[in-house]
Design brief:
Layout (H helix, E strand, L loop, with lengths): L17 E4 L22 E4 L5 E5 L5 E7 L4 E5 L11 E10 L2 E11 L7 E2 L3 H10 L8 E9 L2 E9 L5 H5 E2 L3 E4 L4 E5 L2 E2 L2 E5 L2 E5 L8 E5 L2 E5 L10 E3 L2 E3 L9
Parallel strand pairs: 4-10, 11-15
Antiparallel strand pairs: 1-7, 2-5, 3-4, 5-8, 6-7, 6-9, 9-10, 12-13, 13-14, 15-16, 17-18, 19-20
Length: about 260
Amino acid sequence: MIRKHWFSRFCSLALTGILSLGCAGTALASDAGAAAGSQDLPFEVVLDLNTRQQPVYDGFSQYVNAFRVSEEDTFHIASDSSDVDLSQASMDYLVITYDEEGTQISQECTVYGLEIGTHYPVVRPETVSREKAAGTLYGTLDRCYTIRFNYGDEQESLYFQVLPQSEAAQYKNLILGKWEKDSTGTRYLYNGQYLKSWALINGQWYLFGDDGYLLRNWQQYKGDWYYLDRSSGRMMVNCTIDGYEIGEDGIADRE
């Protein structure tokens, strides 16, 4: 659906040391409901492609809901308050591994200063290349890819399990939510939250704004144009609209 976009290096500081922690002990199954997406930060982290979640061990004491993503997935920052100074925010890319001997945290990179409108990689391209070469990138239960966000005294983490892009339709096809309409528009409620950005629902692609409402008509995303049906909102493919040819991936040839 989305054309491949690769990312230039943007890290302000790269740390290669590995911090060794004591043995994490037995994971607490009672904590399996801890939500990866619950945040106390004054801004919101929005995955550009919505995805199902998978409980994974966070390396310390509990299970958390990790987002299933591919090596191509990205996210962006949303904020509805002008009081938020994103130049003071930072995020740490971490890889957490654990076994019988304990837990290790590799701090891959720290990014200082976040920006509205920028699409950040969920897993750094350098990390993807290294882990793929080692055969440890996909679906390993003893590894958790983590992004830790920092703002003032607040700190929140999101957890990810990486699966192949070729299997994306299996873990990004959301079929258990429900549509809701109000005086403003249409939203889709999934796992207790309204979807934002792209979502594959019952085999059809839809695009939601950062306010959670369904978008329609022509929409530009990462430099490409897409047409979303004026009635249903579904992404149109393999057709011609307003004189523009739209391919199988939904991208319109408007050059």
